[in-house]
Specification:
By secondary structure, the chain is mainly α. It has 5 helices and 2 strands; from the N terminus they run ααββααα.
Length: 113
């Protein structure tokens, strides 16, 4: 419960109450695990990603959010090959995890890796 309390404390820093509420709900639904790695996340590792990014018309709705590790979030959005390679090496994702990652990269209008 302490992670949820921390997420609630940070809620006032977001533009949208809908985002803050849905972020906590999604974290709870995913049992605190990254959707890509399935790793239980520490509070400082938690990032909330818009499946369809806001710049592409995505909203703060529950179904448009996923909880991921902060390094996975960087990798979803990364375009620089060196950055991509650094985070691939750091995360050591398996084939199935890379397949999931690429699904979100395509939705973010990034090339598959």
């Amino acid at each position: 419960f302490s992670d949820i309390i921390e997420l609630m404390k940070n809620a006032r820093h977001f533009e949208s109450i809908e985002y803050a509420d849905n972020r906590i709900s999604k974290y709870s639904a995913q049992k605190g695990k990254c959707i890509i790695t399935n790793k239980l996340l520490e509070i400082e590792e938690i990032h909330c990603h818009h499946v369809t990014p806001k710049e592409n018309g995505g909203k703060d709705e529950y179904n448009n959010l996923i909880i991921i590790h902060k390094d996975v979030h960087i990798l979803i959005h990364a375009q620089n090959k060196d950055t991509i390679n650094i985070y691939l090496e750091k995360l050591k994702l398996n084939e199935k995890q890379i397949e999931k990652l690429n699904k979100y990269r395509v939705l973010a209008k990034r090339e598959i890796i």
